[in-house]
Amino acid sequence: MNFPELHRWDMTPKAAIALQKQLAKRIRLDCRLTQPVRYVAGVDVSYRRGGNDFFAAVVVLKLPELKLEEQVTASGRVTFPYVPGLLSFRELPVVLQAFGKLHAVPDAVLVDGQGIAHPRRFGIASHLGLWLDLPTVGCAKSRLCGEHDLPGRHRGDQVPLVLESEPVGTVLTTRDNIKPLYVSPGHLLDVPTAAELVMRCLGRCRLPEPTRLAHLLANEARRNAKH
Fold first, then answer.
1. pTM above 0.85, yes or no
2. Among 114, 160, 106, 112, CA closest to 135
3. Helices in 39-86 by DSSP H: which ranges?
4. Domain covering 29-224: architecture
């Protein structure tokens, strides 16, 4: 998979925040999914606590059967510091290496992280969406910002996630009696369509299958790495 370079990565956290504010203006929240969506990629990154070696995995599944079509991994050494709200500057360089190994272009991408449910409306899913020029969705296990009511306890129950009086995502129950996920569009999707896509990608677990399998693959790549 080929994509043009959006920007350089060697910058300070202060410069990264300024870049986020600039790039956030380019995010589009209109729905641009092909109908029907057939290929969805899942992305995750694994690393040892306190370590600088990061391992990214991209898994592509075919809908509606959630059949595995392709999977790739990449690794790299990360130098950007951990700063809340700047996760993409640590993880995306190695994630993009993995996407560069894909043979086919997916219709949409699910990311373990935030989309526009972010203080600057530019989480890792939004950042990745601009790099790839693809519809992206953030599927986070915890809330970074925004307010919401409690969703119901049954699969499919959902409530809006609101930031500064605007809906930025959906708090979605993906399995009965399990903690919900925080789903927010990253790029080229609206809030309802992002939640609908995640529902289509659910199996028997809390996480959608693309990101769940990417999580397992990234961890496997980390365990198998030689040190």
1. yes
2. 106
3. none
4. 2-Layer Sandwich (3.30)
